[in-house]
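Pasting as-is:
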Amino acid sequence: MYWKTKIVLKERAKLKWRNIVIKIGCSTLSFYSLQKAKPLSK
C-alpha cells in the first residue's frame, strides 16, 4: 500500500511539472509572437 501511494504522488508531481512547463512555454510563445508583431504594426 505504501509504495502505491508513493507512485501516485510521483505521477501527480509529474503532471504538476508538465502543467507548469506548458504554461511557461505558452507564455513565452505568446511573448515572442507579440515581440515579432510589434515592429510589423509600426
